[in-house]
Amino acid sequence: MTTFAHDLSKARLVPVIRHPEHDIARAACEMLLEEGVGALEITMSVPGATDLIAELVARFPLATIGAGTVLTEMEAHNALEAGSDFIVSPCWSDEVAQIVHNASMPYLPGAMTPGEVLHHGNGGAALVKVFPAEAAGGPSFIKALRSVFPAIPLMPTGGVSPANTQLYLDAGATCVGMGGQLLPAHALERGDVVGARAQILAAIQADHPQPL
């Protein structure tokens, strides 16, 4: 396992931040980091995503902040310039992979089939994002992949929740990516900061029986 994959294995989960409003995404990121979450993936679909990444990298230097849904060379360049610690794509991109590898940064491409997992692992992926994990077969699918690709770190994303996180980890996942459960969008849209923080705390505590 690479050093980067080992670091994410200690984090256990990587919140995936995706929201059409910059301020909502920003507030969620701040709450997650303040409550001890060690890694975040901010998707490029968030307005001003690279500005948000740069701000969080500066304010939370101990956190691991990555860019997600990176599909083009320009997005990869911009995300790296903003200080992203890793780059995630929903599928393999030769252009993005080349830029990220040239920068000696971790690339996390998405895969859904065994062939894609093997391709990405052979291509130098630091971690393979199995997406959408639940639709692909859930923890049993991750267990099957691990049995034939024991050296390729896997991060299931899509349909992951605090209720099934441990099942994925027990199946051999290095860590998991989690979206809506860790982004209290409705509460933040209502201006309910207390409720939003409570939702985040409940999700984190359900996933981490021990203190962070």
Describe how the helices and strands are arranged.
Layout: H1 3-11, E1 13-17, H2 22-34, E2 39-43, H3 49-59, E3 64-68, H4 73-81, E4 86-89, H5 94-102, E5 107-111, H6 114-122, E6 128-130, H7 133-136, H8 138-148, E7 154-156, H9 165-170, E8 176-178, H10 185-189, H11 193-207
Parallel strand pairs: 1-2, 1-8, 2-3, 3-4, 4-5, 5-6, 6-7
The helix tally amounts to 11
List the strand order in the largest sheet: 7-6-5-4-3-2-1-8
List the uncertain runs: none
Shape: globular
Mean pLDDT: 92
Query: What does the largest sheet look like?
Result: 8 strands, parallel
Q: State the oligomer.
A: single chain
> How far apart are the termini?
22 Å
Derived from helix and strand composition plus strand pairing, the structural class reads: alpha/beta
Number of strands: 8
Strand content: 15-25%
Using only CA atoms, what is the Rg? 16 Å
Query: Which range best describes the helical content: under 10%, 10-25%, 25-40%, 40-55%, 55-70% or over 70%?
Result: 40-55%
Order of helices and strands: HEHEHEHEHEHEHHEHEHH
Structure description:
This protein has eleven helices and eight strands. By secondary structure, it is α/β, with parallel strands linked by helices. Strands 7-6-5-4-3-2-1-8 form an eight-stranded parallel β-sheet. It starts with a helix and ends in a 5-residue tail after the last helix. It is 48% helix and 16% strand. The protein has helices at residues 3-11, 22-34, 49-59, 73-81, 94-102, 114-122, 133-136, 138-148, 165-170, 185-189, 193-207; strands at 13-17, 39-43, 64-68, 86-89, 107-111, 128-130, 154-156, 176-178.
